[in-house]
Amino acid sequence: MEHNLYSEKEIAIFEGIIALMEKGINPYSIKVSDIAEEANVGKGTIYDYFTSKEEAISQAILFGIRKEVEIVYSRIKDKEGFKEKFYELLHIIAEYIDSNMYVFRALLSDGGIQKFYEYLSDYKHDLCQYFSRINHIFDHLLETGFNEKVITKVEDSYYRYMAISSAIMGFSQYFGYRSFNHEISMEDAMTASYKLLIKALN
Questions:
Q1: In contact, 12 and 39? CB cutoff 8 Å
Q2: Alpha-carbon distance 20 to 22, whole Å?
Q3: Model pLDDT for residues 162-187, shown as the tens digit of each residue
Q4: What secondary structure does DSSP assign to 58-83, as a single string?
């Protein structure tokens, strides 16, 4: 469990930062006093664990990513077949796009990631672990597809990961178009994404 990696105070600080970002507050405008109030700790406590506000926010982002990846993996594993698992992945993406986008806001808000890059780059190992975990999710999905003989094409892992990523990106584009094209439903977008994936892997 990732909680074992951190003290109770660190977790409280991370969850306080995440709560602020989930409220829509720009991470670049978050003050140490905001974090302290949300986490119910003193300002000095934050500096006991982190050298700066940016480091605290960067680690909170990584903490949040780890939690979300584990939730995604659990939800997908709970589904039975390949199609059901892939559709669950798309449902999760839709949920995050429509609601919980604090990680994306942290990386895409005014100023890009310049303020956080030096801190995030210090945790390259952690980021690699998270990407590896995402690949495990893809592997689980692909293994199910091969076992069901829904997938037949034998390609290298890079091709298979790219096929899944491309299908997901295609689905994600629906959310940018839906306000202009009301004829396409989310179910239509899911069906198209699934067809793209099946075609790429057969």
A1: yes
A2: 5
A3: 999 999 999 988 887 877 877 889 99
A4: HHHHHHHHHHHHHHHHHHHHTS-SHH
The full set of domains in the chain, from first to last, is 2-200 (1.10.357.10)
What's the residue count for the chain? 202
Structure tokens at 96: 């995050």
pTM beyond 0.85, yes or no: no
Contacts of 179 (CB under 8 A, 6+ apart): none
Do residues 73 and 133 touch, judged by C-beta distance below 8 A?
yes
pLDDT at 189 over 70: yes
Token pair 């210090």: residue: 122
DSSP character string of 83-121: HHHHHHHHHHHHHHHHT--HHHHHHHSTTTTHHHHHHHH
Residue 100 and residue 37: Cα distance in Å, rounded? 21
The residue type at 33: S
End-to-end Cα distance, the chain: 37
